[in-house]
Amino acid sequence: MTEAALSQGQPRLAFALTEGLLTADPKNGQAHYFQSLALISLKDHRAANAAAARAFRFADSDIQRYQAAQLAAQLTYADERYTLSQLWLRRAVHYAPNEDVREKSVMAFRKVRNDNPLNVQLRFSVVPSDNVNNGSNSPYNIIEGSPIVGTLSPSAQAIPGVVASIDLRGSYRLLQGETFETRLTGQISNKRVELNNSVPGISGDDLSEHKIQIGFAHRWTRSKQGYWQAEVNGGRQWYGGDLLYDFVGVGMTRVQKLSDNLRLTVGAEVEEQLDQAPPITDATQYSAYAGLSYALGGGSRVSGSVHFTEIDSNGTNRASQQWYGIVGYTHGRKIGPATMSASLGYSTLDYDQYSVVFPVAGGRVDSSWFGGISAAFTDLSYMGFVPTLSINAEQSRSNISRFDVDQTAVSFGVRSEF
Predict the structure, then answer these.
(1) pLDDT tens-digit readout, 133-149
(2) Which pTM value belongs to this model?
(3) What residues does 118 pair with on adjacent strands?
(4) Rounded distance, CA 22 to CA 45, Å?
(5) HEC string of 47-67?
(6) Where are the alpha helices (DSSP H) in 58-193?
(7) How far is residue 414's CA from residue 119's CA, in Å, rounded to a whole number?
(8) Residue 381 neighbours by CB under 8 Å, 6+ apart
(9) pLDDT tens readout for residues 47-101
(10) Which of 397, 415, 412 is CA-nearest to residue 144?
């Protein structure tokens, strides 16, 4: 009768009928759902939203949960509460009755996210590793061309443990036009380390890292083929619980669509690092990068990028140049229960001047190979979030054996599907 009253344009009667049903059973999810529909027709959207939330809470089946979540998402969107609407749409995605309906909810989520001036991204991971301190693979320190052999302390050698990281990034749209937008941006990140065993001279707290950053980003475009983005930011970096340096930086990025499948990204950044711990050796870091991404058939993608970083400083063992390149591949279709991706990279790091008690002839030169395989278990998705598993390995070789490093790590995390 309630549904019939709504279809006949009698919302007051429908509301009265749902009141009777809810008096008999306050946990009647369908009655709350129809009451929400009646309240929408009566222009009481706030009460309708509360009723839709109760409909979801007391739903008896997944299809009822989907309907209630979809209705609540529409109501909160109409009320311009976009972040809450995104949460309801994630619930709708989770309880969607089939893939076609699920994809429509995903598309609705993306539209709301685009309309929402607030954007928040949260990432976290737990990484067991055989080398949490980037320590040497040998107890000896051998310098090429020198007859002196040193002995490394236990804290300078590879230490197994677990690294837990969390990274919160957000932005708020301040201005928007047809061809531009300006955002206030921010980031808070934290890395904590737990050693598997006690090691003299070092603890997990000594390896912890913290960072806060705030800035502005301005993006503009003259066509649908690409855009420019300029950024300015500043913040603080801590290491081992102590303030390490303040920083301020500016950067520019260009993203250009070269064809339907091929995209180019280039960028550059300059960052001034102002030391807050002795010895005071301020530094300027220059960075540049270029990358290509190509979409293959079936949702697969291949990518490659080249990066360059130069640190200019008068500090001991701080000025350096680094080049590294990465190639990656993402498989479009699932392999078993997961979607798979892989990457491989090579890096060279050069210090023109480097000292280990005495200056090292020729400075320090490191070369590294690194790579990994990642799996996202989409069948275990909850509200659009999927668990991930990555296996990463790195091997570095140097003319100073203290920096001969081998590392293998397994990373457990969660990421959003959309």
Answers:
(1) 999 999 999 998 787 77
(2) 0.89
(3) 172
(4) 19
(5) HHHHHHHHHHHCCCCHHHHHH
(6) 62-78, 82-95, 99-115
(7) 18
(8) 94, 417
(9) 999 999 999 999 999 999 999 999 999 999 999 999 999 999 999 999 999 999 9
(10) 397
Taking only the tens place, the pLDDT of each residue in 199-238 is: 999 999 999 999 999 999 999 998 889 999 999 999 999 9
User: Which tokens sit at 373?
Assistant: 């395989």
How many Cβ atoms sit within 10 Å of the Cβ of residue 46? 10
pLDDT at residue 380 greater than cutoff 80 = yes
Angle at 283 between CA 164 and CA 355, to 5 degrees: 85
- Listed in sequence order, the residues at least 6 apart from 384 whose beta carbon sits closer than 8 Å to its beta carbon are 90, 93, 94, 106, 109, 416, 417, 418
Phi, psi values for residue 186, rounded to 5° = -155, 155
SS3 sequence, 168-219?
Answer: EEEEEEEEECCCEEEEEEEEEEEEEEEECCCECCECHHHHCEEEEEEEEEEE
Alpha-carbon distance of 364 to 414, in angstroms, equals 38
Task: Specify the pairing of strand 118-129 against strand 140-142.
Answer: unpaired
Residue 160 CA to residue 179 CA, distance in Å, equals 50
Peptide linkage before 147 cis (omega within 30 of 0): no
Q: How many CA atoms lie within 13 A of 135 on its CB side?
A: 23
